[in-house]
Design a protein that fits this description.
By secondary structure, the protein is an alpha/beta fold. It has a single domain, classed as Nucleotidyltransferase, domain 5. It contains 7 helices and 7 strands. Strand 3 and strand 4 form a beta hairpin. Helix 5 runs parallel beside helix 7. The mean pLDDT is about 95.
């Protein structure tokens, strides 16, 4: 299980071979009030994916139409799924103490993880270090858009099943590997 701490891990900007890339789908873009509805991760060893984790999550409230329109996750799909309190432990066990990598995770995904962990684990959060591919792309590719679709287009990575957490994790891993070679 990920080591829980009172402190956030460090933000890294380096190319490493062993890590876990993850992504969330949520009911909206507010890291304060919206809920996680899908959490997926891809464990990578020596630059190759070796295991994956993916769970739909019941947000215990209706998914707004705009969110469903983007991620294609419906109320019916999550109705019989576990709540985040049950899924978070599985996710933390899967990622362990790996460096966590993701697209815009510093400002978005990690804020959801920190908020839910603080609530579930009495103020404690994962102490994993993080690498944000969005922040690295802003340094290495300053004259372009820095969303996942634009980065995939730049590196000729096929965009398949976008805005589903596991598919986005796979694409983010490929983007990170391309960015890493330029670091």
């Amino acid at each position: 299980m990920s080591t829980l701490s009172k402190e956030k891990g460090k933000e890294l900007r380096e190319y490493i071979g062993d890590y876990t890339v993850f992504d969330l789908e949520t009911t909206g873009i507010s890291t304060r009030k919206d809920k996680i509805i899908e959490i997926s991760a891809l464990k990578v060893r020596d630059h190759k994916p070796v295991d994956e984790f993916s769970r739909l999550v019941n947000p215990e409230k209706p998914i707004p139409y705009q969110a469903s329109r983007v991620n294609h996750i419906t109320d019916e799909m999550v109705a019989q799924q576990p709540v985040i309190d049950e899924v978070m432990g599985e996710f933390l066990a899967f990622v362990g103490d790996d460096v966590l990598i993701g697209q815009n995770i510093k400002q978005f995904d990690m804020e959801f993880i920190y908020r839910e962990c603080k609530r579930i684990y009495d103020g404690l959060i994962p102490g994993n270090d993080v690498i944000d591919t969005c922040l690295i792309s802003r340094v290495l590719l300053p004259c372009m858009k820095h969303n996942l679709a634009a980065l995939c287009a730049h590196y000729h990575i096929p965009v398949v099943n976008a805005h589903r957490a596991l598919a986005d994790s796979r694409m983010t891993m490929q983007v990170y590997e391309c960015l890493g070679k330029e670091l």
